[in-house]
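Objective 1b: paired records.
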Amino acid sequence: MDNLVRINRVIEITGMPRTSIYEKILDRTFPAQIKIGSRTVAWPESEIYAVNAARIAGRTDAQIRELVQTLAAKRKNADTPPAGEVPDPRPGMKRRLEVAAGGARHV
């Protein structure tokens, strides 16, 4: 499971200022943020480390854009539970969310 990290942690990991991070997102050489609340965004931690590793390895901006594109595609193909199901915190288990007249309950 990937941790989501907020901007201050991203700044700490990358060593880049906030404006540079957002400029690189626009340039598609840094992963885009994920909206996790009405005014809150975060990044998958593994994506930040993957881009850092590519920079350390001396990859070109074109190669990093390709990496960022691959990471974005993996996000879209990530396993998501079917509608009405929520993952159980215990591995391999699922719970179905039933909505009844009295509210929602897990079964």
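Objective 1b, second protein:
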Amino acid sequence: MTEPDSALGQAVIAWDLAGRYLLVTTYGSSGCPNTIDRVVRVGDQLLEFSTSDTAAALATTAPRTCTADLAPFTSSIVVPAGIVRTEPLTVVFQGNEIVVPAQT
């Protein structure tokens, strides 16, 4: 598992026990969490994640106030075909490269 660096907005990423999912914990408003909405395999053992902007989406559909707290939110991501859990995996998220250790 990676360690969070909230100053960089870095996520915590870990394999689930079965190795079929990546658990991605991000930090932001508890009332309007950003969720992983796009996963792209850009190379061998290299993924790129992007998030939705829940606050912006809500502003266009319904009036809602997002809280100014810093709370964790975990997304469960299906691992794309060809990614091997027994090798280190690099994830690009918000401009940061995060290395997820191999699952043993």
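The CA atoms of residues 44 and 82 lie 8 Å apart. Helices lie at 54-61.
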